[in-house]
Amino acid sequence: MLTISSISEQHQLLGLGRPDHPLISIVEFDAIAMGARSASISFINKFYTITLKPRCISNEKYGRNRHDFNQGMMNFCAPDIKRALEPNDSLPEKGWLLNMHPDFLIGHPLHRRIMEHGFFHYEVNEALHLSPREEQVIARLLDNIRQEYLSIIDPYSQDIILSQVETLLNYANRFYNRQFITRKSINGDLLIKLDLVLDKYFEDDALMITGQPSVKLISEQMNISPNYLSDLLRNMTGQNTQQHIQNRVIKKAKHILLTSDLSVSEVAYKLGFEHTQSFNKLFKNKTKTSPLEFKNSFN
């Protein structure tokens, strides 16, 4: 596993000259050496990367479907995430790669806010697919960023560059939400699949063995990243994955309380809670009443 610690090191591996700025750079694909284009490698970057590929043709790899635009494609990657390139992952002639080291964000509000953008932890096949107009918006912002860091560095440089980066991220949020909307029918199928996965836990009494299912575990069973699933659910239902799981647990708890003679502690154990107090707390938080009060109110 290759760890790429700096932008300078990445430029060297790609057969490029030294970066004009040590903490941020924009690479055009047609400048990358041919040898680097065909390499097979697994690597971890220690910095953020944002990729824009115009008219990318690898539909299956990047998750494009019949409801998506077929112009540009974007991927986002946070530091310390494993990525792999295979020999058949040929780069298009045109495209841009934005690299930004976390140190460049120090002292700026974006340093704290950047990880609120969940798409930095999406998988490659959860790419953002752009319309021609959207691609032009992103390309202009990338060009603005490059022109600024190529200018004379002064006390205003960081704020101006990062304001452009933050604008780009806000547009990405808008475009991803548009993509969730245009994929409504397909995403509805994912919601059904999620509920089927949860139903299996309830039907098999698996929760007594495994405990409460985590967002990570459920996401793995659905072959989707945790961040993408939560953002998709938030767009569709107003709740993230954890909230959706908790609501399903409470719904099941109500059913058991009303249709069985199990005690509250037995219900808690059946639903995977290690401590009855945790079950009581969640139930009361969701329903404004305790499990026992809920059960007695129907007797």
UniProtKB/TrEMBL annotation:
All copies of domain HTH araC/xylS-type, residue ranges: 192-297
Domain of life: Bacteria
SMART domains named among the record's database cross-references: HTH_ARAC (SM00342)
Cited PROSITE patterns: HTH_ARAC_FAMILY_2
Molecular-function annotations in GO: DNA-binding transcription factor activity; sequence-specific DNA binding
UniProt keyword Transmembrane helix, yes or no: no
SUPFAM superfamilies found in the cross-reference section: Homeodomain-like (SSF46689)
Name of this protein: AraC family transcriptional regulator
Alphabetized UniProt keyword annotations: DNA-binding, Transcription, Transcription regulation
